[in-house]
Amino acid sequence: MPSAVPSSGKTIKNWILNQFQRSQSELIRKLSRTRSNIHFTFDLWTSPNHRAFLGVVAHWMDHTLNLHSTVLGLQRFRGRHTGENQAKHFWDIVKTYQITEKIGYFTLDNATNNDTALQYISKYLHDLGIEFNPIKRRLRCFGHIINFTVKAFLWGTNSEAFEMETESHRELQEETAELEAWRQKGPLGKLYNIITWITRSPQRRDRFEEKVIHALGTDTKALALVPGNTTRWGSDYDALTRTFDLRELLEEFVASAIRRNEDGEHDRLPSSLQYDELSITDWDTLRGIMDILEPFHHWQLKLQ
């Protein structure tokens, strides 16, 4: 009975990880006995908190001729959404499950980076002495093709570009209005804009975390900035505390982004950063706000 009661804050986490490892070992055993090759679907997904993941699903027939499908991985995806990067993440997953020699066909949507991904997967297999034709092994998602057909009928041959343009324009207007509203709140609003700009993009978030790791090492817990929110008590104080922990790195990151924009290497909405870049006076104001919030933060911790 005692083993069924959590003994520390890490107990449930350890239970989950142990169960995952047992299930993974069992799945590796099943995949080693498949009757057919193993076929795949994969796609990129960005979570509501702006972290990118690559989902990989395997499909196969077992020795009793029954069909099976299962998720092999929902792996954190770092870096640009290129085909080369997708192939690398996919390859890491299939190596974990020891099925590199059983790779069959792929059903993917019609994005060109998927073509590139299969070309790189073909190179990985070629290095193992396995022949793989990236064109013949790439099956097109029929649902995606139907969607393209309908969009072309409604909006013309450049329907996808048109939709992306209108969506980007709408998002730009909304984000510009939000940035201007927060900027009116002084240094704290400017800090909110900076944190939002960094954390809203998986690529920018990853670049900032890599910068922190390079400067502070992998043992640091202060990898990412903490955005304040309206639901978690003390989040504004936590945001300020983390910001001061990473102040020098944050200033360098913002200054670098502004320079890239001035040199023509445009990142999304970096021009707004020149209005949100924090001055020495802004930092002094933020320090004063944090000192005021500190006793309230301690009271909130006692009440939780």
Structural summary, described in words:
- This protein starts with 10 loop residues before the first helix and ends with a helix.
- The model has no long low-confidence stretch (mean pLDDT 84).
- The chain folds into two domains: 32-139, 2-Layer Sandwich (Nucleotidyltransferase, domain 5), CATH 3.30.420; 178-303, no CATH class.
- The longest helix has 25 residues, at 159-183.
- The chain has a five-stranded mixed β-sheet with strand order 3-2-1-4-5.
- The protein is built from eleven helices and five strands.
- Helix content is 57%, strand content 12%.
- The radius of gyration is 24 Å and the shape is globular.
- It is α/β, with parallel strands linked by helices.
Short description:
With 304 residues, this protein is of the alpha/beta class. It has helices at residues 11-31, 83-96, 112-127, 142-155, 159-183, 187-199, 202-216, 235-245, 247-262, 273-276, 280-303; strands at 38-46, 52-61, 67-76, 103-108, 138-140.
How many helical stretches?
Answer: 11
How many E strands? Answer: 5
Structural class: alpha/beta
Tell me the strand percentage band. 5-15%
Spell out the helices and strands N to C: HEEEHEHEHHHHHHHH
When the domains are counted, the total is: 2
Low-confidence stretches: none
Tell me the span between the first and last alpha carbons: 29 Å
